[in-house]
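<amino_acid_chain>
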Amino acid sequence: MRKELTALIGLALLGCSEQAEQANASTATPIQPRDTLHRYRLIASDLLTNIRIQTPAEAIAQQAEGLMHEAGPVLAHFNQAYPQCGAYLDAVLGAVQMLPTLTLQQLEQDYHDAQALPTLADPVCYHPKELLVHPAKVAVMAKAGLSDDEAYLDAELDLVELMAHVEQVRLAFKRAKTATESLEVANDSTTN
């Protein structure tokens, strides 16, 4: 009985050390695009809920600005997957501090309609840009005061549109991953 108990304790400790090694390996793994996008989507969903329950405007503004900063890692991963988007996305990232200080009209014209951005190199670049623009619009709306149901509805509609862009970014990441994997398979088959 004592030998069986010792063996069980030994197996349990071995299992614990394997779990610790796996945990260490997972913390050493770089953050993947799907992880940053998933985090972004969760925060955006929480902001949408807070708008729907009409959380005070000041809190909405802070949360919207926080969401803008969460877009940075997503856009960085997107630039890696789609290098042709670099100049376009870098231009909007460079304006991240300024965006919530603009008027709604300036935001719409300069960044939503992209008049202040370089020429769009590829249509795929449009969707990740919106991960910054829509939260900035909500921040500006909230700073102006979400004084009635209609104001909250406008902010909600911006967030609903944002969620559609998040889905397009997710699909673009998926296409990039599939293309990379196909290229790796093709390279493997030509080296044999």
About this structure: The chain has a mean pLDDT of 84. Residues 32-191 form one domain. The two ends are 55 Å apart (CA to CA). The helical segments are 2-28, 33-52, 57-81, 86-94, 104-112, 126-144, 149-191.
